[in-house]
Amino acid sequence: LALTLGLALVPSLGHAQDSAKGHWKNLAIQPKRMLDGTAYTLGQGRFRAGLFKQSWGALDNVDLSTNAALWLFGLPNLSTRITAIQTPRVDLALRAGVTWIDLQRMLDISGGRATLIPVGFTGSVVLADPLSVHLGGTWNILDASGEYTTQQLAQGIATATGTDINPDLLDVLQGIDQDSSIYAGAHVVLTQSHLGVDLRLNRRDSIIFRSTTFLLLKGTIQGGYSTSSVDGATGSGVTAEIGPSARLTIPLADQVSVLSTLSYQASWRRLHLRVGLPLVLGANWLVALPQAFSLHWLLGPLPEESVPEESVPEESVPQD
Description:
Shape: elongated
């Protein structure tokens, strides 16, 4: 965090004078400058140092990313984005990631562990140089286990998704807990849809609307006990987890769980700053912060700028 702020502060002082003169913002609009919520990648050999994400362009169409802040909280994570289709106006990217969660260390849950695997896609369409639309979807696959009650597990999922658990389901889970609460686990999939709109006022200034809608929570929650048997001759063993389970399907769209943000973004050659307002319905507003706010600095080689002769004198092109 300190490194990112330091990198951002020094160049921003140099950019301020260029911005005041209007030199940078008068350059030709670049429709594919936006990275978050789009199908666009960094480009080979470039680095992004940001508050919420750090990325490396492994290839022109492949990014590898992580969130260093989550590592500090004991949440190792990695993700990748591959732009499978690239055309002047239409791009399509595939996304995947993984986050490992040690619930035993974080919440003192005996044997508690979870793995979150988001997979999805994003399609970006440049309708005109000043306007782009981005559509996509994500399937968040969560596997969790540990010695806690199934009701605790369900309430944790409800908190994460910003929705309410149906009372009838809680009655079923209460029955599972009465039979046995030594072990509980879950395999659930949270489906989301994504919409983004970028309105570029000029090279530097943009208005961005982004919205994430929770569509469906589906999966299985089970409880019971673990038993093991060991073969005395070979020393090998078999472990079985036995107990009742409940299959759940919750249409979250009926409960209006939406994370929307309206933001202003300033994009210089390397420094990018986004400041916005979270507009949240039935969901945890903290999840919307990375959509509304961003500060990142691009390192590595950048494309050469072409300067319109009629708008900007050659000597006034901003330098890094």
